Amino acid sequence: MEISTSILNVKEENCIQTFYNLETAGTDYFHIDVMDGEFVENNTVEKMTKYAEYLNSITNVPLDVHLMVKDVMSFIKSFIIFNPRNITIHYETAKSREELMSWINYIKENNCKVGISIKPNTKIEEIYDILPFIHTVLVMTVEPGKGGQDLIHGTIEKIKILKEYIQKNNLEVDIEADGGINLDNIEEIKKAGVDIIVAGTCIIESSNFKETINKLKM
């Protein structure tokens, strides 16, 4: 299982040192939470753009970009310039399947992997027909929009159902889980079948990044 560290709550005054510490601690990805103040309440565009610029110039750790925005194509274009490993877009933002597929195809045409994210209340079955065209499903285990929330346990069942469907249909799709994941609930998340976990508060607020990341991976 891989770790994507959310840098949403990294303080700007010592962000470069924090990024370096996270890299040496063994994070697999830097998770970039892009929020526009419309699709979700918070607005992190300026901060995440700045952080993506920094990371693009100082590290080889891949960027894992999560767009929680209304104007999806505009933000895809803004963040694809940082050569991220993947860009994840929200299923709920598309007005039609055609629009969703146009975003998916644009990302892939720019040599980037594609993720689809779903909110806690979105049924997993709604995205089954999209799975053959994407690389990752990001299951939100909290309501998107802010860090530090408690995990919604009902979302773990969605992960189990999705894992079974992926295996049954021989699909090559990773499952990523994001929100409220910590050392107390990591075992339950792993057993559900997650490939990548997003952890922010759990790592950033710990006294030893490496120790925490290793414990999450164990």
Description:
- By secondary structure, the protein is α/β, with parallel strands linked by helices.
- It is built from eight helices and eight strands.
- The protein has an eight-stranded parallel β-barrel with strand order 1-2-3-4-5-6-7-8, surrounded by five helices.
- Strand 4, helix 4 and strand 5 form a beta-alpha-beta unit.
- Helix 1 packs across helix 8 and helix 5 runs parallel beside helix 6.
- The longest helix has 15 residues.
- The radius of gyration is 16 Å and the shape is globular.
Please provide a brief summary of the model.
By secondary structure, this protein is α/β, with parallel strands linked by helices.
What strand line-up does the widest sheet have? 1-2-3-4-5-6-7-8
Q: Tell how many strands the DSSP assignment holds.
A: 8
Total separate domains? 1
- Low-pLDDT ranges: none
Helix content: 25-40%
Radius of gyration: 16 Å
CATH architecture: Alpha-Beta Barrel
Note the main sheet.
8 strands, parallel, barrel
Instruction: Say what the CATH topology is.
Output: TIM Barrel
CATH superfamily: Aldolase class I
SS strand fraction = 15-25%
The N- to C-terminal Cα distance equals 9 Å
Count helical runs.
8
CATH class: Alpha Beta
Class from helix and strand fractions = alpha/beta
Average residue-wise pLDDT: 95
In N-to-C order, the SSE pattern is EHEHEHEHEEHEHEHH
Please state the overall shape, judged from the principal axes of the Cα atoms.
Answer: globular
